[in-house]
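Protocol step 4 of 6.
Sequence for Cation:proton antiporter (Caldilineaceae bacterium SB0675_bin_29) entered exactly as in the expression construct, tag removed. Do not edit the line below.
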Amino acid sequence: MEEIAGSFTPLLIVISLAFIVPLLLTRFERLRLPIVVGEILAGIIVGSSGFGWVTHEDQLLTLLAEFGFVFLMFLAGMEIDFANLNIELPGVARAGGTRTDLTSSQGRERRTFGPLSISLMGFILTLSLSAIVGFALLQVGLVSSPWMMALIMSTTSLGVVMPVLKEQELIRGRFGQTILIAALVADFATMILITVVIATISHGLTLDIHLISLLFVVFFLLYRLGIVSLNRFDSLRRTLEDLSHTTARIKIRGAFTIMLLFVVLAEVLGAEIILGAFIAGAMLSLLSTREDLEAMHQLEAVGFGFFNPIFLIMVGVNFNLGALLGSTDALILLPFLVLPAFQVKL
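Step 5 output, structure tokens:
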């Protein structure tokens, strides 16, 4: 019994930090430090680079952290407002929670440059500038693969951007959606491109790369099935609504089922599991109605209240500050990586 209880001690430390860090940052508002950054710093302090109270070898925390990252990407997909992206899909839910048909004459006003257009143009510009920097670093002998370096410098951590937007209550506005979509494009586009580059270098253009597209095929099929089912079978809608207010919490169970379905499918197809989680969240965003807002809030509470802080704190725990400071080559290379990566995103 003592051995079992002892295995929960690192989890207690992490959860305690998740509770204390926001309180401390609220106390010291002048620091203007996002909670996300505070949690990562807290992880560094209690991790192997600090006191060593929590290690990356803890299997329970490792599993919870990985699931936390997956769940965060799922929530990010749920936050996408498709009605604001100039994408014509029947049944797109507005921020107010009502489903509309964008093909009708009552569709929303078109914008020349919406969040998606701005994000795509920004990513192309960032990738182009990163490629220039990558080839410059190649000339001075700091890197051997300029295109890989360009992709690395072009990426953005959606796992950090999304909680900050949520914390600042910007995520539902046009500015917040633009930042969210930009981070999404940078994160997943570079992830897919890096996968393709590595696979091409190692094995060439094989069938495995093309199998990733099956994720989007399944997404479209399930989306259409969901639209048809919810619109034609009123009894199904009523049953879901009734069970969502009982201990069954059927909408929450259904959300986790859909998320894990796409996660497992992505895993089987050799894609990143967080891509599958994001696609699942995006589908729920498309299918959601005003009646689903309560379930959405409950999912957010689970994610931001438990899984997300564990993931962020474990990011700090896994950061090996000693290895960085102990390597002269790494310290020399660091400014050549950080400064260009920062400048190409300005």
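Step 6, annotate. The longest helix spans residues 174-203.
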